[in-house]
Specification:
960 residues, alpha+beta, seven-stranded mixed sheet, 19% strand
Length: 960
């Protein structure tokens, strides 16, 4: 009997083993909620403490999981491998329009604002973009709410509603986005390049969409086209997901399986454009000239080359770009600057299709450079010839390789949102193991590959795009209405560029002495400073110090502020200081280009208190030496009169060009300059700059540093003992510090009396905007806490009412306002179709009626959610060293020294009541006797609403 039982057991086991796939499918895969592949072997930096895993779900969806136990900010991104190139010929802009529609509700969460409300109430942000061959959706959120955000996010790709009445409304949002860019010269040049490309390739097409293209069909037909596009391309095998959270990899995997396994699976669609050249023979060898809207001169040299993705170990195009982008003596950049031909240049490459990349060399020209653009092109070929003949050396490659390896070994953690967006960009083109290193490292030297790319950078394989305001044209691009002209580059010119000799000035750099070969050890600090401490103070100096306790990287940041009143005691000196710092920065960037290339960040900037010298590197002794050398240069530096005149002219053009930017952004930036003492707006500076002369500049330089107060902040891999008085004494002797106390200006805002004020800003952008500011008399932590909660509660509602429902514009924002330690609330709306009076009417309906109802009816649990999420955001751990450094440095720069500000504000948030929010809001926005209300309008349609308001100019006399 026992033998019979044993035999039956063996038979049963055999049957089970034989039919194991059937049983597994029935009991564990029938729900589709499982994975078919798991890969934990993703190469990462030795300093990267995060864990990575790539999984493939049963439905074919690829998902990269990033576990960061130290994060309290989570993020996610879905990359759909379909973009504007995939649009059918009868549906221009449908990819972008589909992106918009996915935000507006699904079967599980049908409300058009449910997703945005959820993300906002948990102190996150969300957005999307449509590129040539992909559409990317992403969000971040307080970490503990990642699963809830993903539950809604997943439904974008499972059960979108494409609600019929919202199809009609959302056309206006797409049109507003299109019109926001219509005066932007980057977009204008881009569309001229597109319209002159191969008409058989979808790159040639208009892709944003507008009312013209989206209204050519009935709403029902347009909705059907959206659904058809979605059904064709939005399937699991054509997507890649990244999620970033604090949970371990197994927990993240479970969330992904649970939320995303129901995305449908289809067969992969073959793209129609893979074998069509973006530029055919008829499109090359062309000079394409277009009229800019702004007063600027633009030159681009564009060369189609082979797609570089498969060469990610060798990166030949990156190697060439790094050679072209150098700025030291002997380089193309330095030569063109010295000859007054350019303001700056850059080179880079970008993938256009799976088979083609575009290598670009771009120049921002001077007036002289515009007239001699053909000489600049010839000089570029001359420098490329130098690289080709003398620059393809293994030691140069190895030097760059070493620098990139050092940077990778000690890389700063990027913010979670950047991680989730970027990492899977090339997932379809390389092994999973290399998705991190592929973007960061050079591995293999191959001179033939470098030569192959260089051979493509020739006059026959080139398109030149030249943009300037007075260009002669004979055609008009149909959507951005850009006048342009296409001409053949003459054979004589092509032959001249082919035969160009190497310019005698051009020299390739020898071995870089600044490359860090021996990295300083990582310190184990005994102290637990969570704020900078003052390690030296006397009548003319302060030195602050803070160890890197969180990240333990062998990096050091040093910022030295040379405080002087003369940088902002009047508008003329403020302008002189701006020009001076521009000239000084250009000089330092060129002289110390080798140090900068070797990962020693050197930045020269200014604020109204004086000059700021910021450095970052791996050696305190090297950084101290650099500071000493730079300070010596500062004391001796005298610019040329020619370069002074060029920078001044560039600033004048910049003031004019600013008026073409988005009126909403222009108004917000100008509001801070208008309201702050010892700061002047673009309008004020554009008038005063005409009186600035080189003689005044020389006088300014001789006196600006006569009375200095030095304040430094040192952060990172250095211990307290290394910050000896020698460091400070060296600086003091060099700078001849004589000030007996810190007398520079503190942050101040003009004293605006209670009342309603208006300001009109003239712009050259056809859109209209209204920016409303409500200044608070209270400047304490409790008031800040209440304003932050108010911005969270009302921000999404403002967007939903005025953008989603009323479709007044694309730029719609409501938030907390902070200028020079003065706080308040602000809102802004930019519209292509409504004037300022109409916009302000709708804003007032929200601020005076809707907002009060929202606050009165605010459920306690919703308030608690806003409060807890805000506290989490205020107390969130920094993502990297730079976040820590910048936050603490800002407190030192503005002389507030409130290093634990976020912690204190977070404590105040926990005690906020609904009554306190209402009282704060009414006092700030509603009460006419107490409020300080400023309305800034662009362009000239003030209407009756502004007639009841005082002019802000009447109180600006107290600025200085």
């Amino acid at each position: 009997m026992k033998k019979l039982i044993i035999v039956l057991v063996f038979i049963l086991v055999g049957i089970l083993l034989y039919f194991k796939d059937t049983f597994i499918n029935k009991f564990t895969i029938n729900s589709k909620k499982t994975v078919i592949s798991v890969n934990n072997n993703i190469t990462k930096s030795k300093s990267d403490k995060r864990n990575y895993r790539m999984i493939i779900l049963r439905n074919g969806l690829k998902a990269l999981l990033i576990s960061d136990p130290d994060t309290d900010e989570a993020a996610a991104s879905m990359r759909v491998f379909a973009g504007s190139f995939d649009e059918p010929d009868d549906a221009i802009g449908i990819a972008h329009f589909t992106e918009h529609m996915l935000f507006l509700g699904n079967k599980k969460y049908p409300g058009s604002d449910y997703y945005s409300n959820y993300i906002n109430s948990h102190r996150g942000m969300t957005n999307a973009f449509t590129s040539k061959d992909a559409t990317v959706y992403y969000f971040n959120i307080v970490d503990k709410h990642l699963a809830g955000g993903l539950d809604i996010f997943a439904q974008f790709f499972i059960s979108p509603l494409f609600t019929a009445d919202l199809v009609d409304k959302e056309k206006n949002a797409v049109d507003s986005e299109y019109k926001m860019h219509i005066k932007n010269d980057f977009w204008r040049g881009y569309h001229v390049d597109k319209v002159t490309a191969n008409p058989s390739h979808p790159y040639h097409n208009f892709t944003i969409g507008n009312l013209e293209t989206l209204s050519s069909d009935s709403n029902a037909t347009l909705r059907k086209k959206v659904i058809n596009f979605y059904n064709k391309y939005y399937y699991s095998d054509n997507m890649a997901l990244t999620i970033y959270g604090s949970e371990d990899l197994d927990a993240l995997q479970k969330i992904v399986i649970d939320k995303f396994s129901d995305i449908r699976q289809e067969k992969t669609v073959n793209r129609k454009f893979d074998d069509i050249p973006v530029y055919n023979k008829e499109n090359l060898g062309k000079l394409i000239t277009f009229k800019t809207e702004g007063d600027r001169y633009v030159l681009e040299m564009n060369f189609p080359i082979a797609n570089q993705i498969k060469e990610y170990h060798e990166k030949p195009a990156d190697f060439i770009a790094s050679m072209l982008n150098r700025k030291d003596i002997g380089t193309l950049h330095k030569y063109l600057i010295d000859k007054n031909m350019i303001n700056y240049m850059s080179s880079y490459h970008q993938r256009i299709t799976e088979k083609m990349s575009l290598f670009s060399v771009e120049f921002d020209l001077t007036a002289k450079g515009l007239n001699q653009y053909d000489e600049i092109v010839g000089l570029t070929f001359s420098y490329l010839k130098l690289i080709s003949s003398n620059g393809i050396d293994k030691w140069r490659f190895d030097e760059i390789k070493h620098i990139l390896q050092t940077e990778f070994n000690y890389a700063e953690n990027s913010v979670p949102t950047n991680n989730v967006i970027k990492l899977l960009e090339n997932i379809n083109y390389m092994p999973v193991e290399d998705i991190i290193t592929s973007r960061k490292l050079l591995l293999d030297f191959n001179s033939d590959n470098i030569s192959s790319v260089l051979n493509k950078l020739n006059p026959m394989n080139m398109r030149i795009i030249l943009g300037y305001k007075s260009a002669e044209t004979n055609q008009v691009e149909p959507y951005f209405k850009v006048p342009y002209k296409v001409e053949d580059i003459s054979d004589n010119m092509v032959n001249k560029w082919f035969d160009v000799a190497i310019n005698d000035y051009f020299k390739l750099r020898q071995e870089n002495k600044y490359v860090a070969r021996n990295i300083s050890p990582i310190f184990k600090f005994s102290q637990k400073n969570n704020a900078p401490k003052l390690v030296l103070e006397d009548p003319s100096r302060k030195i602050w110090y803070m160890p890197d306790l969180l990240f333990n990287k062998p990096q050091i940041n040093i910022s030295t502020m040379l405080n002087t009143k003369l940088f902002s005691n009047n508008i003329e000196n403020s302008l002189l200081s701006k020009i001076y710092v521009e000239l000084l920065s250009e000089y330092v960037s060129s002289k110390y280009a080798s140090a900068i290339d070797a990962l020693n960040l050197i930045d020269i900037s200014r604020n109204k208190r004086g000059l700021i010298i910021s450095l970052r590197g791996y050696s305190l002794s090297l950084l101290a030496k650099l500071i000493s050398e730079i300070n010596t240069d500062i004391m001796k530096f005298i610019p040329s009169s020619r370069r002074f005149a060029e920078i001044k002219e560039e600033m004048i053009r910049s003031y004019n060009n600013d008026k073409l930017s988005s009126p909403a952004f222009f108004s917000y930036y100008q509001s801070k300059l208008i309201l702050e003492k010892n700061a002047w707006s673009a309008m004020e500076e554009s008038k005063a700059i005409q009186q600035v002369t080189f003689t005044k500049m020389i006088r300014f330089i001789k006196t600006a540093f006569n009375d200095l107060f030095l304040e430094s902040f040192v952060y990172g891999g250095v211990n307290d003992g290394e910050l000896s008085n020698d460091f400070a004494d060296t600086l003091s002797k060099q700078l001849n510090l004589t000030s007996t106390n810190d007398t520079v200006y503190s942050e101040q805002v003009i004293d605006v009396p209670a009342g309603a004020y208006h300001q009109i800003l003239e712009t050259n952008n056809p859109n209209h905007s209204v920016l409303n500011i409500y200044l608070d008399d209270d400047r304490n932590h409790a008031a800040t806490a209440e304003l932050l909660v108010l911005s969270g509660v009302l921000g999404t509602k403002f967007y939903e009412e005025l953008r989603t429902q009323k479709q007044l514009g694309y730029v719609v924002h409501f938030s907390h306002y902070n200028i020079s330690n003065v706080i308040g609330l602000w809102n802004v709306l930019e519209s292509p179709g409504s004037n300022e009076q109409e916009i302000n009417k709708e804003i007032n309906i929200f601020t005076n009626s809707s907002a009060i109802k929202i606050l009165n009816n605010l459920p306690n649990d919703e308030l608690s959610t806003h409060k807890s999420s805000l506290i989490s955001k205020l107390l969130k751990k920094p993502n990297n060293r730079q976040e820590v450094f910048k936050e603490k440095l800002e407190e030192i720069i503005i002389k507030r020294y409130d290093f634990n500000r976020r912690i204190v504000v977070a404590k105040k948030v926990s005690n906020i009541t609904k009554e306190a929010l209402l009282n704060r809001y009414k006092s700030l926005v509603i009460n006419p006797d107490k409020r300080k209300y400023i309305s800034i309008h662009t362009n000239k349609s003030p209407g009756n609403s502004l007639n009841k308001m005082k002019k802000l100019d009447d109180v600006l006399s107290s600025k200085v």
